[in-house]
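hi got a favour to ask and not much time before my train. below you get a single protein, a line of residues and a line of whole numbers that encode the local backbone shape. could you go over both lines and see whether the tokens make sense for that sequence. a few lines back from you is plenty, here it is:
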Amino acid sequence: MPSTRPSGSERWWLPWLAPTLTLAAGLIFWGAGEQFLAGAAVGLSALGFYGVHSLRARLAQAEAARQLMDERLLTTQKLAAIGELAAGISHEINNPLAIIRQEAEWLEELLKGARFQDQAQLLEFRESLQEIILAVERAREVTGKVLELARERQPVIQKLDLNRLLEDMARLVEHEARKKNIVIERRFALDLPPVESDGPLLRQAVLNLLTNAYQAIEDRGTITLTSSWAGPDHVKIAIRDTGVGIPPEMLDKIFLPFFTTKPPGTGTGLGLAITQTIIHRLGGTLSVASQPKHGTTFTIVLPLSWEPQEQRA
């Protein structure tokens, strides 16, 4: 037999009952000539209505936040499962890749002593072997990044000079950037204290974003690298480029593994996923803002003092 107990949606009127009855009592007092009691009842009723409205609004916000957390947890669990599966596949792929490369290099050695009547044919053999080796290297790069994404590496925390780290990374990409007439502007806050973080991991994350920035600029442009405060106990790194930008419909997908806006064959689609994973392990956040044809800005926010993930609020 189906339950006849009313559901929560069918009892929506219950929170409003008390202020409504209080208001009714105020009207009765008013009719009886008790203006003071009537005024007090109406005032209490107004407070009651306001309180119920505020409480319902907060409950709605809390429910929306809970649903968002549930969705993020589900997505994280799916990505973790995919990561484990991809890591296993990558290990299996790496073994035949190593054999292919070894055999291709052996064939190269044999060709050095071989005699061909047709030199053009010899050149064609060598070019084909080079293509095989390059393809193997690209495949190994992809599997290496998959393993890196799936690997749970605990940060090694030390105090870092954030501006010096950013300057080092800017110099690494500056040579390549100049070939495309790209200028890297530095805007560093000079009053930043040392930051507790993992130097190699943070360098990798910043380098990934700087590389993406100059690759997004076709010819002539500017990359602006900024450090600043983000509240009393956080710092912010912003990397802005004047490149092609990212279409709005792609912004919520760019951190997904294997998603890329680059042409086929020029990107693995793992760089931003790895970068976001690194920043999360460092206790920070990574966000993006972009407009097509007006450039993109990636923003990292990091705590001054690092805490293990299980101790974070």
Notes: The first strand starts at residue 158 and ends at 160.
